[in-house]
Backbone:
């Protein structure tokens, strides 16, 4: 049975573990602003490639996780390519999945995936990408001591080329949007929305503020999607 949700909060690609993430309070406030019956983190919530384990990150961001624990099984974590080992979150009362399907208030069929499903090369380059983000994080921890707002993004060198290819795959692969009315995903860190055939799609961007873009979140309430910027 696919669950029905009338008021859903969705975002993803927080990359907790990145020195540049300073939005814990903002995120908690966003989720507090309404009574959501489902709160979805669409993958890469954690980025343990940067040297801090997911369990340590849950402790570090205890304001967020203590608040989420009050919502318990309403909170869904989808596994991304940076956080495939998050099954331990089930012990905290959360739901952990590879993908999520649900039905909205008007019967609209929604699928949420992380988005690396469209990224054929990410597994092949994972070994190198892990090294790059680890070094990037070490640099950023030093830099941020001197200049609070400066960060380097070495990983972007790889990402720029990939985005076009991933979008091409997205447009080519209908299996991800067969029998769905809306497909929600992230992974690209570049927010987007549009229509593919009869399917609405949304990308929530990312919280690492790549390309100086603010993160976004989606609210899916009473059959309507709102794609909102976090300022
Ligand atoms: Mn990803």
Residues:
């Amino acid at each position: 049975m696919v669950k029905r949700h009338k008021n859903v909060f969705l975002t993803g690609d927080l990359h907790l573990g990145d020195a540049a993430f300073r939005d814990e309070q903002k995120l908690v406030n966003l989720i507090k602003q309404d009574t959501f019956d489902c709160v979805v983190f669409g993958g890469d919530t954690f980025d343990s490639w940067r040297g801090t384990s997911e369990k340590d990150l849950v402790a570090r961001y205890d304001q967020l996780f203590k608040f989420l624990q009050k919502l318990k099984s309403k909170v869904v974590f989808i596994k991304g390519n940076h956080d495939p080992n998050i099954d331990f979150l089930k012990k905290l009362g959360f739901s952990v999945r590879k993908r999520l399907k649900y039905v909205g208030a008007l019967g609209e069929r929604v699928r949420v995936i992380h988005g690396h499903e469209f990224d054929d090369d990410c597994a092949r380059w994972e070994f190198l990408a892990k090294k790059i983000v680890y070094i990037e994080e070490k640099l950023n921890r030093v830099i941020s001591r001197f200049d609070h707002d400066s960060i380097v993004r070495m990983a972007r060198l790889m990402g720029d080329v990939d985005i076009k290819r991933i979008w091409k795959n997205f447009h080519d692969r209908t299996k991800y949007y067969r029998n769905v009315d809306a497909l929600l995903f992230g992974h690209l860190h570049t927010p987007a929305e549009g229509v593919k055939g009869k399917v609405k799609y949304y990308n929530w961007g990312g919280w690492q503020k790549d390309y100086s873009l603010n993160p976004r979140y989606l609210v899916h309430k009473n059959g309507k999607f709102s794609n909102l910027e976090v300022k």
In short: The chain has a mean pLDDT of 92. Residues 49 and 130 are 5 Å apart (CA to CA). The radius of gyration is 17 Å.
